[in-house]
Design brief:
Elements lengths: L1 E3 L5 E3 L17 E6 L3 E12 L3 E7 L6 E3 L4 E5 L3
Antiparallel strand pairs: 1-2, 3-4, 3-7, 4-5, 5-6
């Protein structure tokens, strides 16, 4: 699948669908969080929330406040047991 520009050149843009239900994130997992202002930071998943969409409450290691992040901004580093 691609997008075609005016010059007939095809730029490849493939859609990636991730089934977030199959990604097993659990409370206690060590995660990387992509933040808006601080880049990528480390934290631990504290609670799964259901606001409008699925969110996770993450306890950050280098910040006094918790962050609420969507699953697409999280990457599991080490799964809890």
């Amino acid at each position: 699948m691609g997008i075609q520009s005016n010059g007939g050149l095809t730029i490849g843009v493939d859609a990636v669908c991730v089934d977030w239900e199959s990604v097993a994130m659990k409370v206690g997992d060590l995660v990387k969080v992509k933040t808006k202002h601080y880049g990528i930071e480390l934290g631990v998943l504290v609670k799964k929330l259901r606001l409008r969409d699925e969110h996770w409450q993450v306890k950050m290691f280098n910040h006094p406040r918790d962050i609420y992040a969507m699953p697409n901004n999280l990457e599991v580093i080490s799964a809890s047991r």
